[in-house]
Design brief:
0% strand, rod-shaped, Death Domain, Fas, mainly alpha
Length: 179
Amino acid sequence: QSYCHRLQHDMYFLTSTSRLNEQVVDKIILQLNRVYPQILTNEEAEKFRNPKASLHTRLSDLLKHLQKKGDRHCQEFYRALQINAEQLFNDLPSRKILKTPDPTEIDTDKEQYMLNDRGPVFFLACFSVAAGLALFWYCCNSETQVIGRARRILGFSPIIIGRHVRNICMLYLEDIPRN
C-alpha cells in the first residue's frame, strides 16, 4: 500500500479533535521544511503554520498538499510524525492494518517453538516406544538366542506398557520358536 493511500486512510484519524496539538503540527511542518530532503518550501511552511487558520484546516490542507506531491512526500510526513508523535504514529489505523498478520504467512518465531512445546513427557514416551521397538526387533532376530530373556523382560512389563500390548508381544514371542 502506498504512503499516499495510507495517508488518505489516516486523514480522518489525524484531523479529528485533540489527536495532534498545535506544537506537534508545527514541529512536523518545520521538520518537513528544514530536514533533507526538503519537502515543504519556506512559503508552504509559513502557509501551514499560519496561526490565524484553525488547526484542523491547516492540518487538512497539509495532508491534501502532501498527497498531491506524491508518495515520497507522504513517506516523509510519516517519518516526521513518528519522530514527533510516536504514540499517535503507532495508533494510526493504517499501522494497525499493517500489524495484523497475514493468515497465509508463516510466523518464524512461532514456527521455532512448534516442535518444542510438547514437553519432557512426550519425549520420554517417544523414547520408550523407540527403545521398546528396538528391543523387540533385537529379540525377534533369528540369529540371536535371547528369546527366553526377552520373555522374562516382557513378563515384568505391565507397569511400563499396557497389558494388551504385552499380551501381543508374548504371543509373538511364543509363535517364533514354532516357526
